Every structure is written in C-alpha cells, then in structure tokens.
Amino acid sequence: MNKERFRSQKAEKVLERMGQKLNRQMVGSMVACVHCGMCTECCHYVLANPGDPTYAPAYKADKIRKLFKRHFDWTGRVFPWWVKAGSVFTDEELEELKDTVFGKCTNCRRCSINCPMGVDFATFNRMARGLLVSVGIMPEGVAVVSKDQWEIGNQMGVLKEEYVETLEWMAEELQDELDDPAIEIPIDRPNCDVVYSINPREVKYDPRSISDAAKIFHFAGESWTMPSECWDMTNFGLFSGDDALGGSVARRLYEKVEELGGKRLVISECGHGYRSTRCEGPNWAQFNVPFAMESSVETMIRYIKQGRIKVDKTRNSIPVTFHDSCNNARSCGLFEEPRELLNLVVSDFREMYPNRAENYCCTGGGGAMSMSEYTPRRLKSAVIKANQLKETGAKVVVTSCHNCVDGLSDVIRHYKLGMEVTQLVNLVANALVMEEKAAAVTEKVAVPAEAVAVGAAVMDTPPAEAAIPAKEVPVTTSDGEPEGLPLAGLKLVVADDEPDQLEYLATVFEDHGAEVVRATTGDEALAAVRGEKPDVLTLDLEMPGRDVGDVFETLRKDPEFASLAICIITGRPELRKLIYDRSVRVPEGYLDKPVTPDALVRTIRKVIELRHDA
Amino acid sequence: MAVVYTTRIIWLLRFKAGGERQAPTGSSDTTPGKGILYSWANIAMPWAMESTRKNPFMYVQFVIFHLGVVAAIAVSFMIPYAPTALDGVVLVTCLQVVIGAAFVVGVVRLIRRVVSPYMRKISSPDDYFSLALLTVWFFSAVLAVPNQTTGGEAHLLAFFILTAFFLVYVPFSKISHYLYYPFTRYYFGKTMGYRGVYPVHRA
Predict the structure, then answer these.
(1) Across the strands, what pairs with A232?
(2) A116: which chain B residues are within 8 Å (Cβ-Cβ)?
(3) Over the stretch A361-405, which tens digit does the pLDDT of each residue have?
(4) Is this model's pTM higher than 0.90 or not?
(5) Which domains can be identified in chain A, with CATH numbers?
(6) What is the number of other CB atoms lying within 10 angstroms of the CB of residue B117?
(7) A118/B184 CB distance under 8 A
(8) Mind listing the domains of chain B with CATH numbers?
C-alpha cells in the first residue's frame, strides 16, 4: 500500500530546504548516533525534569533526525519503522517540532561535547530552527526580534537618534564624573585603531557599560570610535537559525568597519555577539574580514599588560564568581582570558563548578529570553544553575555576556539567591586608578561631514543632528499648506490593492497634510513614482500585476529615485524576504498591518529622516 | 559489506563540508590538528568528557563490549584460518573471559534499554535488535572459541551463521556507527581545535 498523505506547503518547504542545508558535519551527526544515552545527564533540562525523557538530547535530536532518515538516508527510506524514520505532514506537526527545537533546548552545546560519537546536536537543532523560521513557524518573540534586526538594523529596534542621544548622555556623565571635558565617545571617526561595537541592550538597559568602556578607552589613550550605524554586534540569526539574517547582520558591521578604516573591531561583552561576529559571521556572510576582531575582555587585558591602564583589585573586594557564557566558552574557547582579567581586578574570585567549556547554560541562551511562552520551563530548568551559583558562596556573579546577565538575573530573582550580576567592563572601570591615567588622544583627526563626536570638546563638527544626512521634515510650507501638520509638503504614492486599506492609508496621510497619489498594482505604483516623483512610496507586498520585489528593486537601481524613501506596509510579514533579500538598499521603513494613524505618521516622518539624499 | 561501506562513505562525502573563514579563536596552543587528535582519542580518555567521567561503570561496559567484538571477530578468522592458535588453554580462556564479559555487558545493556524510560524513548527496533543480536553472537562465540566438535558442531554452526548474518546486516544497522565515528570526531575536533575549545581545559 503506497498511500502518500497530503503534506502542507510549509512541511513541503521544510523538507525541501533541509536538503539544501545539510552539510557533511550535519549528516555525520545525523547518522552516527547510537542512542547510547550518554548525553542525557549533560542537559540541564533533563536534570531539572527527572523522569521526563522528552528533554533528553538524543530524543530531541531524533525529532529532527527522523526527517533526515525518512527523506535523505536510504535505510530510513526502505525500512522507516525499523529505524524510527518519519516525516512531517501538517503545520501542527511543525508546531510540535518548534516546541522542541526552540522550547526545550538553548543550543548550549553541552551535549555535543559530551557525546562519545561527536554528534553535534546543537548545530542541527539550529538548522531545524532555521527551517521552521523559513516557513514562518517560530515563537513570536523570535519573529519580533528578527524583524527588528532585519529592518531597523539592531535586535531591539533602537533608532539612530536614541543611540546617538544615549552616547551623548554617557559622554556628558563621564565628563561630569571625571571633571574632564576632553572625554568623548567618538562616532564615525575614521582610521581609528579600534571600532567598538555593542549590544543594543546596552543602549536600552545598561548604558553604564558604554560609559565604563569609554572610560577605559579614554584612560588607555586609545584611538577609538563607535559607528553611527551598523553598530549592533549581536546577531539573532544565531538563535533563529536564519543564516541569511546572520550573514546580513554580520556583513553590515564588517562593511561599516571597513568604511571607517578601523584597524580592529572590538566586540563588547556578549557571548552570542562574540560568537556571531567573531566566528560565525564570516561564514554566514561569505566575507573575508580584513581587520582583526577581538572581545573587549582581550582588549582590557592588553591595556593592563601594556601598562596603558592601572587597576587596583582591592576596589572590588566583594566575593565574585564567574559564569562562562556557552557561546564564549564552548564555541569560541574564550574562557581563560576572563579569569585572567578577573584575577587582575578583583581580590576574591571563587570558581564555579563545573566551569569553562563544561559550565551549565544560564538558561537564557539560544534566544530563550525572547520566548516568553517558555519562561516557566526555562525557570524550572534553571534550578541547576541556581544550585551552581549558590554553592560558590559569592555575592556577585560576573559574566561576559549580556544575554547571560538577563538570564542569570532571572534565575537569581526566581530562586531568591540575593546575588548581583555584573560584567568585567564594570569591574575594570571600578578598579581603574585615575591618577595614573594615560594621556588621552587629543589630536584632531580628519572628520567626515557626517561624523559626530558625542560630548567632544575638540571636535569641529556639530553634534547629533550632523550625523543624520537627512532632509529636514517640513512642518511648514511656503505654498499654503496647513502649517503644523506633520506631513505637510510631502508627496506620497500609496500602493495597496485592497480598496479599504488604500483609502484608510491615503486618508490618514492627507489628514496630516500630505499630498497622496493612489496605486493598486505594482505597475501603477511604478508609473506613479515616475510621473509624480514623490518623497515617499508606501508599498504593500502582495499586489496584482508586476511583482512588488521587482518594483522595489527597479526603483532602487534607478539613480533618478535614489532619494526616494520607501516604506513597506504589509499584512504578510513572511513575504518581507521578497524585499530584504535583494542586493539593494533596504527600505527606510516597515510596518505590519493593522497600523494606527499615529504609527503611520510617525513612521513616514522617520523614513523621510532616514532617506538618502541624491 | 565492503561495497555497502564504500557506498556509504561516498554518500557522506558527497555532502559539502562546512568551513571556517574566521581567524582561530581561543588559546594559541590549540590547533585544528590537536583538536582532531584529541577528538579521536576521546574514546580512550574517560576523564575527557563529563559523561564518561561521571559514569565510569558505563565506560567500563563500553570497553568490555567493544573488546568482546574485537575478540569475537578474531575468533571468526582464527577458527577457519589458524585453528592451531586455539590449541593453547590460556588464549582460549582469555578469549572466553573477554567475550563472556561482553555477553554479560550485552545483557545489562539490553535490560537498561528496556527498563530506563530515557533509553526506551530513544530506542528504535534496530537498537534492540542490534544489541540482542550481538549479545547472542557473543554467547555463541564463547562456545565456539575452543573449536571443539566432540559434542557436535551446532555451536560452531550457530556462531558462523550469525557471523555471516552480520556481514549482511551490519551495513544497514546502527552497528555500522564505527564507520562514521572517524568523520564525526574529525570534524567536531577540527572545529573545536580551531576555536580553542579542544583539548578541554578544566580546573
């Protein structure tokens, strides 16, 4: 009996793409497992959930392996029941797979280093995540964060103004704290020895880590800068398994460093950021990075060893322990350097056991912090980490990873451990001996028109606004448009094939002072732009006629429309790759339907600010 | 068997190997080469992995079981091609002890696979059958080692029939894992060596 079940389109795609993603290492890991069960007790999920075999790494791996066996390995094709090969047919089955690959594994790789056969489960678990993401099946948090990183350029949706203002603020704080107006946080300064990239979490929740790093660079006399754009060294592609996102994010940063002429990219303390930028990024992006890259931990050690900064470890006398980030320790070998630095800046360091490559995950890894639906599961599994922390007797846990800071904070709060979490940059800054400060770099350097030095007394260029190569958003006009309306003076082409949507969008824009030209197909949109030469084009992703992706690319490649701002407004976010996968400049804005009038107006103003003038 | 193995290797090599473009990370005294050697040698270093370090009994089982396989394979060659080698009581006793111990381990492992909910959950019919087959084969090998026919030839026939069956079945089963071991360990060790993780540092 050869009755093939109906298979959903998503399931078809997953299987088809699996074949494209398999490499020799993955295939080896798929076929080599002997189900010996040695990995079972290495997983914190298993240890925290005794009696539940569904958390066993081999069991989770088999959820993916069965697909491989059924579709790519001939033994599973011929005798599927004998080797437990199986397929997926429905979206519900894909949802179940999602629960396993996202909700029961943090890709910490602890089982991988404990497998006698060398099966690297974490690698093909990530592949399975990527397959699901490619068909739109993922935890909501993963979708949101990925979207922000695709469209805004960083995973927390930090806007350029917010970023620059935070750097300005931190520079001013430093100037006040040290009573030194020469302290600066340079932005886009060319040809520096160090380009410093950070995690958007630092801008949002932990700006002190930026000012601490700035203080260290200042006292080390470093020639350094931060990029005004493409500054996010984190990469959600590592967690989502989306290699395209991973490559795109990494490439943006590498190209920015190249553009600035930076000699070395320093990556602030972040496990997945370090792994993505330093190790995986060049592979995802197929980019041969021409400059050096290092963790800020290595930078700080070098400064101390070279005598560029002096530290006094007695200033950090509280007992501290160190948590190794999985990505740093188990995937990048960065475990001795943090200890070396800790021993230089703290007087009471207590090792945690197990440690280094054998440490347990903070339980917030693999993007788990952004998957709120799995929080109870995560916190339950965190009992292993909580016990580990408690046994050290330390008051402070130090980690070189922002994700771990959040993960550990949750563990400490949930299990009432009464500990604090901090990072090495904070401890080094606290241990700095100011009297011995190195001479800061004060010579002026050639600064491009758009370069900004936040809080710099010596810079020639004006701050903040100069960084935005934008046309001012007109709020008043000379031709009689209502004064004060936020979109007054702007001409928009609004393209949407749904009459209600089109009318809604057009009305909102018109009510706020814009002149609107309507289009209902891709061809009409193209013709309208060519005929009307608007300031902004809003594009629905799914319209009849000419493919919207082609319309977008055609306009992007036409020098006449180089300054045209384009905003995607869609109810089908899964189609955004039609736009973002193209090798042209990304749209200035993106909105998911339904969208409020406020968001519409705010976004249009923003895209006007961001557009590239011809 | 050789044809199937060759086919499997060619099949595996048809998949492109992932590479590393980035500069190496971690300690400068670790290299891909050292990582590969360390990875391959893991099998002989029970202290290297937490999973074997914390389960010495499992590791001992692993050693005995695989020594039993080697001994039984050797017997399958010695009986037809060098029967006089089995004239010595010491060698025969040694082989019987090793293979007998492997048989006991096989039984223990079979029980573990049936009793443990974790093992049951991950086991396929092939896992049970392969283990049972090997265990029975060990038993027949223990009887066959003296190469005596005074009590009849049934035990020798059983041993060689099972051995012949293995030739056919092994390439299709999990027993062929040794074919993949060098590859998985090579690539994992290469990556981990390049990234400074292997050899694992502990303190």
Answers:
(1) A198
(2) 42-43, 49, 51-52, 62
(3) 999 999 999 999 999 999 999 999 999 999 999 999 999 999 999
(4) no
(5) 9-138 (1.10.1060), 149-436 (no CATH), 491-610 (3.40.50.2300)
(6) 10
(7) yes
(8) 46-173 (1.20.950.20)
